[in-house]
Design a protein that fits this description.
With 119 residues, this protein is an alpha+beta fold. 15% of the residues lie in helices and 41% in strands. 30% of the residues are buried.
């Protein structure tokens, strides 16, 4: 499902598992999903990715973009639980990720939370 479909109907999905595709953006240590490059600066159109230590986790597993204002601005697909956002700039957030896949320069990466206990 795309980001805007989830944001528009976020109350219907709160507490439920959702799969969302879009652009994963990391700016200033904050990670979020948007639908298009034009939406990267509008957090009201975004889903906050609420994962502890997200930045170091990503840097350890995925090459970052260099020389721009975004550490990441790459295609992604996430599967997790939609929540009301505790971050005032975002309408909702996704946590309890079951999968987090990104694509950088044509290479795909499955990001894993290595601090989480193994099932």
């Amino acid at each position: 499902m795309d980001v805007q479909s989830i944001v528009r109907r976020s109350n219907d999905f709160l507490g439920h598992q959702v799969e969302v595709e879009g652009l994963f953006v990391m700016k200033g240590g904050i990670g979020y999903l948007v639908d298009t490059n034009q939406d990267t600066e509008c957090r009201l159109l975004a889903i906050h990715v609420s994962v502890m230590d997200l930045k170091p986790m990503l840097l350890a597993q995925v090459p970052a973009l260099g020389g721009g204002k975004y550490l990441y601005c790459v295609p992604a697909r996430l599967l997790g639980t939609l929540r009301a956002s505790s971050h005032a700039d975002f309408p909702c957030s996704i946590d309890s990720l079951r999968s987090f896949d990104v694509e950088v320069d044509g290479a795909r990466f499955s990001v894993t939370d290595r601090s989480a206990p193994m099932p």
